[in-house]
Design a protein that fits this description.
alpha/beta, Four Helix Bundle (Hemerythrin (Met), subunit A), Rossmann fold, four-stranded mixed beta sheet, 12 helices, 18 strands, globular, EC 5.3.1.23, S-methyl-5-thioribose-1-phosphate isomerase activity, isomerase, Methylthioribose-1-phosphate isomerase, Initiation_fac_2B_a/b/d
């Protein structure tokens, strides 16, 4: 996607052997490129959410492993680096998937061959992510076009999304935003309701920023406004991403997604989940088996932002004596999901629907 007319990915190899990322902890107020030169920096970038979003976490882990193998490409070095990266965040299955893919490609090689092979495999993984998300966009575009056909000429399809499943959460295009970008670029009128997505405000900080840079009409809303808008017929569809989807179609996504699904179900608003196939975890059946990351309560108690003078700071929101709980994700049962939008097409959120699109993985 483009920033002020310049095309960017969220992660790319630098000419001098480092890896560069966009530091997402500074958006929307600052745009800075961060260099990763080794394993510890890559692991920190994932843990501190300088990169975030399931696909981008996986891509960063792949490059982190490649950086680590330049220093120690032994069997022990490979295993240790993978373990370090795997421990950074527990919920997004793409992290595990990317590391397993990298280890499968690298373990059979002689140690002297691993570093270059790891770099090439990480680059291939990133290219595949871009292609997957573009295909998700093509399939989701058809849904948006069908809704647009039912509207008055020029009336926008109003889409509500939660958190950031945009191109900042992937290598490019995004998952939930890919159909939106495809529709906008094709001239289909769309307007996006952007949930702020407390406590880290990925909607207000990230989704709003990238939609604005691309010229997509949107409005930021507080998290609790979605149900109100649905009741009044101001939402035509909801589309979100996912950090892990089970074999039967339960969806684990940013905290608050479940409440949006309940409101959509109550108001007859279709609720779609856009996901790349690496996000499907065929080893888990029940969504409540997915480990839910519990993040620091400081994310709830403090809010970063700009002062009137333009200084970047943070302010406390809660009483000093009040502790905060911060579960980062929740589970939306498959029964509340209208359909899953994948790179191979749209399917029901059922075991049969998923297996029909990905028979080779379902049977494994």
């Amino acid at each position: 996607m483009k920033i002020d007319g310049v095309p960017y990915r969220t992660i790319w190899p630098a000419a001098d052997g480092a890896v560069e990322i966009l530091d997402q902890t500074l958006f929307p107020h600052r745009f800075e490129i961060l260099r990763l030169t080794g394993l510890d920096e890559a692991a920190h970038a994932i843990r501190a959410m300088q990169v975030r979003g399931a696909p981008l976490i996986g891509a960063t882990a792949a490059y982190g492993l490649a950086l680590a193998l330049r220093k120690d490409a032994s069997d022990a070095g490979l295993a240790s680096a993978a373990a370090t990266l795997l421990a950074t965040r527990p919920t997004a299955v793409n992290l595990h998937w990317a590391l397993e893919r990298m280890k499968a490609a690298l373990a059979p090689l002689a140690p002297a061959e691993r570093a270059d092979a790891a770099w090439a495999e990480a680059a291939a993984l990133c290219d595949e992510d871009v292609a997957i998300n573009a295909a998700i966009g093509d399939h989701g575009l058809k849904i948006v076009e069908e809704l647009a056909a039912k509207k008055a000429p020029g009336e926008p399809v109003r889409i509500l999304t939660h958190c950031n499943a945009g191109w900042l959460a992937t290598v490019d295009w995004g998952t939930a935003t890919a159909p939106i970008y495809k529709a906008h670029d094709k001239g289909v009128p769309v307007e996006v309701w952007v949930d702020e997505t407390r406590p880290r405000n990925q909607g207000a900080f990230l989704t709003a920023w990238e939609l604005g840079r691309h010229g997509v009409p949107h409005k930021v809303i507080v998290d609790n406004a979605g149900g109100h808008l649905m009741q009044r017929g101001l939402v035509d569809m909801v589309i979100v991403g996912t950090d892990r989807t089970t074999a039967r179609g339960d969806v684990c996504n940013k905290i608050g997604t479940y409440l949006k699904a309940l409101a959509a179900h109550d108001n007859g608003v279709p609720f779609y989940v856009a996901l790349p196939s690496p996000t499907i975890d065929f080893t888990v059946d029940d969504g409540f088996e997915i480990p839910i990351e519990e993040r620091s309560g400081d994310e709830v108690s403090w809010l970063p932002g700009l002062t009137d003078a333009g200084d970047y700071t943070r302010v406390r929101l809660t009483p000093e004596t009040s502790p905060a709980a911060n579960p980062a994700f929740d589970v939306t049962p498959a029964r509340l999901v209208t359909a899953l939008v994948t790179e191979r097409g749209v399917c029901p959120a059922t075991r049969e629907g998923i297996a029909g699109l990905f028979p080779e993985r379902a049977a494994a």
